[in-house]
């Protein structure tokens, strides 16, 4: 099974900051990596699919990059409404796993 | 508008059974892989199971194999999760999710809470 290591587990940043979260796969997953945002008490929301593609309607301050085993999720200018927990998720032959999550807070 | 509405959660004793349902609307249900994803209280997300459009292929996370069964009724636009031999560690909010091309989860329900406790 493919394991996903996401870091950091929590992050405090100021409005306007550039924020970066990383996700590492235990083996090569090509670009089969997605990113989700989850606000308290809500279902997750897909933000980035296939490592770098922005889901329709998602603000352009969100972006993703990477391939193989190392992936990065970036918020170019943090906004107050971005406070949430973020998860990476890989898919491999119809089996899936998520990273542990990164809880993002405003400093 | 795509909508996924879960139901069937509740309190059950260890070793008991529960059947979750997910009613889908706003899209052609029979054209999509569907999945269940769960989240234990205060914890992260865990994929549980998925099922092919026609129900001919099903996949499960190791921790539920032999205990949970995913199924669907395309005529009723409904997804199900039969959960048997429930354990305390199965306590979680269970989400129904549409799996776009079997790769990402592009729509989610609001979730239904399953609590396994004596």
pLDDT averaged over residues of chain A: 96
Q: Could you tell me the number of beta strands of chain B?
A: 11
- Rg of chain B, rounded, reads 13 Å
Strand content of chain B: over 45%
Coarse morphology of chain B: globular
Count of individual helical segments of chain B: 0
Overall SS class of chain B: mainly beta
Average predicted confidence as pLDDT of chain B: 97
Oligomer: heterodimer
Tell me about the largest β-sheet of chain B.
Answer: 7 strands, mixed
Note poorly predicted spans of chain B. Answer: none
- SS element count, helices of chain A: 0
Radius of gyration of chain A: 13 Å
The biggest sheet of chain A, with number of strands, parallel, antiparallel or mixed sense and barrel status, is: 7 strands, mixed
Q: Spans of chain A of 5+ residues with little confidence (pLDDT < 50)? A: none
Order of helices and strands of chain A: EEEEEEEEEEE
Write the H/E string of chain B, N to C. Answer: EEEEEEEEEEE
Summing up helix and strand content along with how strands pair, one would put the structural category of chain A as mainly beta
What does this structure look like?
The complex is a heterodimer of chains A (107) and B (118). Chain A has 107 residues and is an all-beta fold. Chain A has strands spanning 4-7, 10-13, 19-25, 33-38, 45-49, 53-54, 62-67, 70-75, 84-92, 95-98, 102-106. Chain A is built from no helices and eleven strands. In chain A, strands 2, 4, 5, 6, 9, 10 and 11 form a seven-stranded mixed β-sheet that branches. In chain A, strands 1-3-8-7 form a four-stranded antiparallel β-sheet, with no helix packed on it. With 118 residues, chain B is mostly beta strands. Chain B is 0% helix and 54% strand. Chain B is built from no helices and eleven strands. Chain B has strands at residues 3-7, 10-12, 18-25, 33-39, 45-51, 58-60, 68-73, 78-83, 92-100, 104-108, 112-116. In chain B, the strands form two sheets. In chain B, strands 2, 4, 5, 6, 9, 10 and 11 form a seven-stranded mixed β-sheet that branches. In chain B, strands 1-3-8-7 form a four-stranded antiparallel β-sheet, with no helix packed on it. The model of chain B has no long low-confidence stretch (mean pLDDT 97). Classes of the chains: A mainly beta (107), B mainly beta (118).
């Amino acid at each position: 099974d493919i394991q996903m290591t996401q870091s950091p587990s929590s992050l405090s940043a100021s409005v306007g900051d550039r924020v970066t979260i990383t996700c590492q796969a235990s083996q090569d997953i090509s670009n089969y990596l997605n990113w989700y945002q989850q606000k308290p008490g809500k279902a997750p929301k897909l933000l980035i699919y296939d490592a770098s593609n922005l889901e329709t309607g998602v603000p352009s301050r969100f972006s993703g990059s990477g391939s193989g085993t190392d992936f990065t999720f970036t918020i170019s200018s943090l906004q107050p409404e971005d406070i949430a927990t973020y998860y990476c998720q890989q898919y491999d032959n119809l089996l899936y796993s998520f990273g542990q999550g990164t809880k993002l807070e405003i400093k | 508008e795509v909508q996924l509405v879960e139901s069937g959660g509740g309190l059950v004793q260890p070793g008991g059974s529960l059947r979750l349902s997910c009613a889908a609307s706003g899209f052609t249900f029979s054209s999509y892989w569907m999945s269940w994803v769960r989240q234990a209280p205060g914890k992260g997300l865990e994929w549980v199971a998925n099922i092919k459009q026609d129900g001919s292929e099903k996949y499960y996370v190791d921790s539920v194999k032999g205990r949970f069964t995913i199924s669907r009724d395309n005529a009723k636009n409904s997804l199900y999760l039969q959960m048997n031999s429930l354990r305390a560690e199965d306590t979680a909010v269970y989400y129904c999710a549409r799996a776009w091309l079997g790769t990402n989860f592009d729509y989610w329900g609001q979730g239904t809470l399953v609590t396994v406790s004596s």
